[in-house]
Records
---
Amino acid sequence: MDQPQLKRDLGPWPAASLVVGIIIGTGVFLKTAVMAREGGSAPWVLAAWVGAGVLSFTGALASAELGGRWPRAGGEYVFLREGYGPGYGFLYAWNRFWIGAPGSIAAYAVGTTTFFGSVIPLEGLTAKLVRVGLIALLTALNCARVVVGGWVQTVLTTLKVVMIVGLALGALVFARGGDFARITTSHGWPGWSAFGAMLIAALWAYDGWNNLPSVAGELRDPERTLPRATVYGTLAVIAIYLLVNVAYFYALPFDAVAASSSVAQATAATFLGGGAQLVLALAMTLSTVSAMNGSILSNARIPFAAARDGVAPRAMARLSRGSNVPVPALLVQAVVASVYAYIGKFDELTDAVIVVSWMFYGANALTVIRLRKRQPPTAYRTPGYPIVPALFVAMSALLIVNTVWAAPRTAVLGLVVTAVGAVVYLVIYRPQHTR
């Protein structure tokens, strides 16, 4: 009997919606206040948003080339396997499975209860059960045909973008007491350590530019769709983030931004009055649910691809005969994410995700340089090669070094998880490849 295969059911709009929808999640609502406390003035916070955006965009350009070269399920796992061998590909899949994917999904779940909890109090066990329930519901939706998850993503992303841009424009036009002078007032350079911490915070908000290649095996015309959706989607997010953050600092005094637990809600209150809390709670909840849906859909394809290569349990490689999606991988991912959502705190989850992920993002960009020497790409080429991927590699290394210096506990977590993965590969999977 023929084995079920992935279906190429995702067109350009669902692809672009995955990029934008996964990137715009919780960070643009929560991280600006954290960054303001680190940076001390609006210009440096905005500079960190720009810097993180440029860094993410250079990574997206490199990812687009690799995705056009290998439009198969698994994304970065495939790139790293081709560039450095099965061992390095396994380490990426291992880290993504145990920290990157479930940490992201759990952080979105925590963000959702945080946002909606401002309208309907969600605390303690109730909040934890709501988080787990959201993960279960979206996982169940994605166990249907991939086109269902794709169109759910398109609708959620469209609504989210409309509401976020509406918030920014409303504040810039109607905010009571708004002042553009707040955006340009600086209190001096905050220091490299503080600026690095701001970059880490902003990079969480940009994380997700690399997810689309994971579903390349289900894209229509992937050689064209994947690069375009990745590049244009990332550019759109950068523009939206800058617009929103300018609106925050225009509408609110800097100290109010830094002290706010939800700067978006405080900004909306300057022109929406008493209805701001409910409107923003709905907008932010919609944003995080959209990001969670995209993350669930795309990340499950990584253990699926690894299992098909024999470096993960074979059960993870199974596709449902009814929907042609990797249901076992989706279910196991949901279980791990639910555990994190039950026990984790938002900033701890996001910091762990970023540090572990950037250990491999730089290696991906270096893959572009390595593979160009062997075989030029037949589809999309990274603009500014080799400067763009080289810049991304260098900045990734600096970011990791700064994180080790500023947050050694988080960095050690990533290194320990990677070391355990290396032992698992050497003991279990490497002998299978050397027989």
---
Amino acid sequence: MNNHAKGDALFVAYVGPSMNPTLREPEMVEILPYGSRPIQVGDVIFFTSPEADRPVVHRIVSVTATGIRTRGDNNPQEDNFVLQPGDIEGQVVAAWRGQKRREIVGGWRGRLASRWLRWRHIIDRKVSPLLHSVYHAMARQGIFIRLLPARFRPRVVAFQTSSQDRLQLLMGRHVIGRYDGRLKQWQIQRPFRLFVNEKVLLKTQNRH
């Protein structure tokens, strides 16, 4: 993550899938120090991971006498570590894409948003196995790709981070997928795989 300060706010380039769909690459997140404000369950916070010694943006899921527990909105498990108030650099209050600012809610509203995302993940895991084979068979046939005008078809975009090139799949201005270098595979939001040429993706990832 690359960061710079502006007044009291800190701006950081968000990287990774752990907070999808709340945050997505390549958004900039706006972070405000807590000061005298209380740290609350539901807040999205910026801190340095005690395990990996790297910056992390995750949501607070519990605050107890022993410490603060966090989890990414897209992660099934809580983080293994426990934070202390002094470990937290600030609260993520907004995400920026170009000049467009989007509020990131915290507190009780953040808790509701997190709970909805958790239920959506659970429902998705239940339904996905039933539709998985049909969905991927339709994607391989490429029926929907041929129906979509060329100018509307997804395109691969590469952008540079501090450590490596990252690949994203865009449809119009919307990020619909990204290449996971660790898993060596594309992560594409449903139902957009129906409009993707898998051969083009394979050629692109092999060049990086």
---
Amino acid sequence: MTTEQASRPSQASGVPPGPPPSLPDINTQTYPFDLVLRLLDEVSCFNLFSIPESSGGAISAAGGNGVIGVRVGEKLHRFDVGLEPPQLASGLRVADVVGEELAKFRHRWLLIPDDFRAMPDREPPPTVLDPSRSQRFVMLDGTFAFKDGEDGFRGFGTGRTFPMTVKGKSRLLAGAVGNIMEGAGRFRGLEGTYTYCGILSPRRGFSGNLLIRVIDPQKRLRAGAALPPLRRMPYPERELTFLTFRGQKKNQYEKTSLVFGAGGQPQGFKLSQELRNIQIDAAAPKGGEVGSAWNVGAAIGGMNSQVFLNILAPGAPGTGVSPIPFHSYNEYTFLDREGRSVAGFAAEGGEGRTFTLAFPAAPGQQALRFGAFQTLAKGTGALSGVQGLMTDNSAVGVAPHATSTLYTLCILDPQGKYRSAHGQARR
């Protein structure tokens, strides 16, 4: 179903049908809105830059008849994304700074048919990579570990390739969503979502951003002391610029509305979010273990979204092996301090996965984890002509509908249009 079909009114009068009287209101407060938002924010986040290591490389079909996947070996580095306040004069500028290595991630990314049901223990049929078209892939045998090797997890997920051309050069971008299946060390018993966006090369592997968001109410993975200064290294992917920012429901008075289809049944919902700057960092304090730290900054814009998912009855268990699929259409606007529009874009297409979430501190509170990747489109102002991908790594409550989202833009930027002239990380 297309976005246009999904949002088309089902009555001849042009007025969408109203909700049946028995449907609950997703804005009703099971627990206070501020409490639910605080529970959603009890997380540890790791915003990392992935650099291919020598163990990666193409996986060839039997007889050498084409590439069917990539053996991805990643060296994951500290990554400081310093988004400057949007300004009419300078537009959007960001200082992307890569630091010391913190972790490794190894897995197999195998191409799959569009209708293949991916499972952690299921090998797909050999599917040859076609760089000229978008294809799905599965991420198998994922093993993540910090450098000490004791803290890590096994992961599983799926993604899609996106061929794009910028300045006459073809590039194969990739977006993906993964789920923590089993943790070890300080990850033991924790759940979380990770998202990828960057460049996929059959020869080198993957290069770009990995954002891990772990539900961590006991703060096991939070840094217990001030993080040391970043040890800066040369930026490894000059064609890409990354922007990271936060989305959240502004307060309990911002209402989310359901979208109804034929028969008055919910088929999605509409919501608005406030966009805010955010700094996410991770490192090992002197004598300590790798831990995360994050801080929410000033408001920088807003977004409107239409999500195609029946949030009241999603129709799937929402487990690690059977997540709930969804898709959405989102429009974003970046504003300066005076509220003037500096830039805008839409995020469309792609894929989304949803996982159920429970809070021991709030029994009966319904909540979900979301992970998605989409293509950038309809850029305006400073983002006119933008090309690339966006990932969405979020958690939401239902009744009340509170949202806590981390967005990452992966922009094809060979000329450095969006890179800060200062070139300094925020400290």
---
Amino acid sequence: MFHLSNKDISGQVLKKQIANPESGACVIFEGWVRNHNEGKPVSSLEYEGYPELCVSEAETIFKEAQKRFSIEKIICSHRVGHLEIGGMAVWLGVTARHRGSAFEACRYIIDQIKFRLPIWKKEFYEDGEVQWVNCQECAKHGHAHSHSMVDFQEKKTFNAYYKRQMVLPQMGVSGQEKLSESRVLVVGAGGLGCAALQYLVGAGIGHISICDDDTVDISNLHRQPLYGFDDLNLSKAELAAEQLRRLNPMVHIKVWNERITANNVQNIMQGCDLVLDCTDNFTTKYLLNDAAWLMKIPYVFAGLYQWEGQLMVVHPSQGDSGCLRCLWPKIPDQETMGTCAQVGILGGIAGTLGAMQSVEAIKLLMGNKPSSNLVIHDFLNNDRLNLERIKDPDCPLCGSSPTITEIVGSAYETNISRYPWEYDQSRIATSKKKFLLTDISEFFELENSLPPHVLHMPYSRIINEEGSLGTDQNYLFICSKGIKSKMLTFALREKGIKNVYSFIGGWNQYR
């Protein structure tokens, strides 16, 4: 809301109008009449404005700000008429969920108002001289305005910011302009996403969407450098957007503060030139792979497992190398592998893979032919393996007779397989077997002392020391949620160790 006022502006009244219980920040700018200008003593001011164009242009500026920043409400009042020294000439208030967005939007709006609104100022000097001072870039009739100075400054900033990468012969000005016009969706603002987003924004991808419904946990901070201790329990997507706008205000960032699902994936992907998969679970990865293929959008995949990272590009228009389902047709059971939270990850590995995703994305957006390899990095042994991918003619998504032709929600329900060696409370009660309940948490994961009847043997010791388990009893492994115990039992049984079992659901389900 913008209006010109020929009466004194009441900041208290406007502050009440902009109050919003959903907002976490309100930034207010007040412009006052000062008693000097460029060394000359000023006694008073007088403002005149073109009301219709002022309101129209201000609303345009407000819409621009709402696209660039995650803000919720804007109110601006500008005085016209005669003002004495100390009088309030302009009041601007901006509310947002987070302070960074409110600060940046407030500065952007007031700068644009100064440049673009048709408001003129008459200065009365103490020596009796009177002088009209035009706005620097006033909007003209017909809703068109001169951007010559603004365009020059923005172009100068553009060239200075990107000059190190525009020197690359493969990039140049034309390549940089391609990036500035591109639209990229990044799903996941965790370890992979934090690195990928910083380099995409730094490279000047013009429009970036961030999709993540998670909040910051203290265990994220070692590998997610966009967040800090002060950000715990706050939205990752919103915080990432704030930080990235500070890194490069020339990039437009949109936030989808929600979990991507079969119901919203196509809406969120709509209009994107490319999708980066920075997630950490199989179901979402398959959903993104399938939706991107059906919508003919290139898809950059990365996966992490302890010291290992995987990277590949799926490009529907160059489909000789196929898609994710050509390698693994069905969604695996998440509980047999585990996420970073369950199996661990080094921050630098997540950052390295995320940075590599950004490089692949930039090459694609510049028009380079995508790689057809699946690249596997073993960071522990510093090995790299390039595997050429070949399209599977029987692939259910991209094969000659595909069975996946649309996104159906039931196809992406969590796949949880139950094995004969998994036990819950009721099955234990009816079983003739006797079990030694064994907590496999690491020492640093234990929050409370264990009951006397529970043995403690850390996962790391069992998996690394073949003889750590006896052969004269049945071990029933238990952990916090039942995921690590299932993974461990599965791995040991694959090695031929049959006296190990897993408790379903972990301590959350144990009575």
